[in-house]
Task: inverse folding
């Protein structure tokens, strides 16, 4: 099936699909722990600056993606404050690399991920967590053995949503890491590039089909997982 | 074993100031809603931090604000049985049962899971999820989960309140077995008198955040000020003497012999019998030609007059105190005074089977 797919797609298109999947996968996986932590903090803790944190998390959802991309460039670019530091101390360069594309995708998908997980955490009855603590579980154990399993559906739904969003990220990515085939050219950038050259419509429409298929699959999957999780939490 | 509790805490509009000591067995916190029972039990569990207080089971100090010792809930070594069960929905019954056990110190795991599962009759449920259990089954699993956590103190917050009468009757015997077969002290919150009379070793009666009475169950439950005149009842400890051919059972109590409709228990068994004050008749002279079989002579020690038309007469018979609820008019007509002698008359048939329970009380 992979063979059929590679034959149907040209090498440049196939490269874009593979890169998109890999960028989205790593963007989702790497941001998941922080996403769970932030969602937990927003759902359960009260601390000064909570609303500001909430605002920052949601900012990429509202800002023009180009603005987010530009902010990433001046922060994580080679001359940017964080970028310079990462380069000098760890030899990590993000700008114009696939890792930078993953960072841009992660930041753009982050609000969706946090929202889904936060809703799941808010649905967990704190009384169950209190019961666990009276039975001898420390806070960390309560989280690991009660909270985490109960919010698992929310985490999976949030991750799938974030993955789908990352697959479609365009504005911030192209601003931050440009559109380099094989390095930073994801499906949306490739579609954009194909549409700029005469005769690129066929390749573009093949990629469009793939983008639609992946988005549909992600939605169906998250729907399925959501239903299973609801059944599990109901305990039957 | 001594449970000692002293808690002071304030909410806007509510002030809790409670202290009591209780021996081993079941200590019931008894009182109407809003009397501070749940606040108190949550302070004991560590789910609420009181302004001041000290809680200890013998030398195991859970809380001592003066010594700045405040154990977090997970280090208090409790078994908390909640009203709503609070079983973990994502775990099977077996996993729920072992949850607390897993965190308990190895050398403290005295309870054998197989024995607990057998005692609670939940062996056939082990692989199910809580969502597939009935209310009564859930509560039995919750009892097992608390017990297997190797607790130094079991807390139970109205564990039967969410159940219907049939389910209550199903669960109560398990609490009796807990009281009689497990050495762990139990603090049990309830506002249901029959439950209290049946389970309690010690009763702490609360009202508006204060202790209004505390002591052995029979004593507090006979205290009209603590439980209210309408609910007045005496709780007698009785031993089965013999079963008679005509269907009656003869019992012996500290107040004298008692004839009741047949009880199933074997001769020698110790029972608790709860006699509602309004079912007892008072007579100055020993009546003749009366159908009632139980006529016990005694001395009036106290007459409690409420605001309503009723009065509760305390009649000392042997070392027991029988409560009799009569009208104030009868009280005046008969000219009853403390020190007078009188007879308590009880129809055998008026003591319903559900007010007689097996008990491991003090020997007679």
Result:
């Amino acid at each position: 099936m992979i063979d059929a797919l590679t034959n149907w797609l040209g090498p440049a298109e196939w490269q874009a699909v593979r890169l998109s999947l890999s960028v989205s996968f790593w963007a989702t996986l790497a941001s998941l722990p922080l996403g769970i932590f932030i969602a937990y903090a927003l759902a359960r803790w009260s601390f000064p600056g909570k609303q500001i944190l909430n605002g920052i998390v949601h900012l990429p959802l509202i800002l023009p993606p180009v603005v987010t991309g530009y902010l990433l460039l001046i922060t994580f670019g080679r001359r940017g404050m964080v970028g310079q530091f990462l380069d000098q101390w760890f030899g990590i360069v993000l700008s114009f690399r696939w890792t930078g594309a993953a960072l841009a995708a992660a930041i753009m998908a982050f609000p969706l991920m946090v929202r889904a997980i936060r809703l799941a955490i808010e649905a967990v009855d704190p009384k169950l967590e209190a019961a666990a603590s009276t039975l001898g579980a420390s806070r960390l154990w309560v989280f690991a053995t009660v909270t985490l399993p109960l919010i698992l559906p929310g985490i999976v739904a949030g991750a799938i949503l974030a993955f789908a969003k990352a697959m479609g990220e365009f504005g911030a990515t192209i601003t931050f890491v440009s559109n380099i085939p094989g390095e930073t050219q994801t499906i949306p950038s490739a579609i954009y590039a194909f549409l700029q050259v005469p005769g690129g419509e066929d390749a573009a429409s093949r990629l469009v089909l793939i983008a639609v298929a992946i988005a549909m699959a992600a939605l169906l999957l998250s729907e399925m997982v959501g239903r299973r999780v609801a059944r599990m939490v109901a305990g039957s | 074993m001594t449970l000692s509790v002293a808690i002071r805490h304030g909410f806007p509009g509510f002030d809790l100031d409670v202290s009591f000591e209780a021996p081993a067995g079941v200590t019931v916190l008894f009182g109407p809603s809003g009397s501070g029972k749940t606040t108190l039990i949550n302070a004991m569990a560590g789910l609420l931090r009181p302004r001041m207080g000290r809680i200890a089971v013998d030398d195991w100090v859970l809380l001592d604000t003066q010594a700045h010792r405040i154990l977090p809930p997970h280090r208090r070594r409790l078994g908390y049985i909640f009203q709503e069960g609070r079983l973990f929905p994502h775990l099977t019954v077996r996993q729920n049962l072992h949850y607390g056990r897993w965190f308990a110190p190895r050398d403290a795991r005295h309870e054998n899971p197989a024995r607990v599962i057998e005692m609670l009759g939940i062996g056939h449920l082990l692989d199910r999820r809580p969502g597939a259990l009935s209310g009564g089954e859930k509560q039995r699993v919750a009892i097992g989960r608390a017990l297997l956590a190797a607790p130094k103190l079991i807390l139970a917050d109205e564990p039967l309140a969410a159940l219907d009468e049939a389910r209550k009757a199903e669960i109560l015997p398990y609490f009796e077995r807990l009281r009689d077969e497990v050495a762990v002290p139990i603090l049990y919150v309830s506002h249901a008198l029959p439950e209290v009379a049946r389970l309690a070793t010690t009763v702490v009666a609360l009202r508006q955040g204060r202790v209004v009475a505390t002591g052995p169950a029979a004593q507090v439950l006979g205290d009209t000020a603590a439980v209210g005149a309408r609910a007045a009842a005496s709780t007698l400890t009785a031993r089965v003497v013999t079963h008679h051919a005509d269907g009656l059972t003869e019992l012996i109590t500290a107040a004298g012999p008692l004839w009741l409709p047949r009880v199933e228990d074997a001769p020698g068994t110790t029972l608790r019998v709860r006699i509602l004050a309004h079912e007892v008749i008072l007579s100055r002279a020993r009546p003749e030609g009366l159908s009632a079989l139980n006529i016990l002579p005694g001395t009036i020690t106290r007459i409690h007059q409420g605001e309503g038309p009723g009065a509760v007469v305390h009649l000392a018979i042997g070392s027991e105190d029988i409560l009799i609820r009569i009208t104030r008019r009868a009280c005046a007509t008969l000219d009853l005074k403390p020190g007078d002698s009188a007879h308590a008359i009880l129809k055998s048939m008026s003591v319903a089977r559900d007010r007689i329970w097996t008990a491991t009380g003090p020997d007679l």
Notes: Chain A touches chain B through 23 residues (CB under 8 Å). Chain A has a mean pLDDT of 89. The first helix of chain A runs from residue 2 to 8. Chain A is about 80% helix and 0% strand.
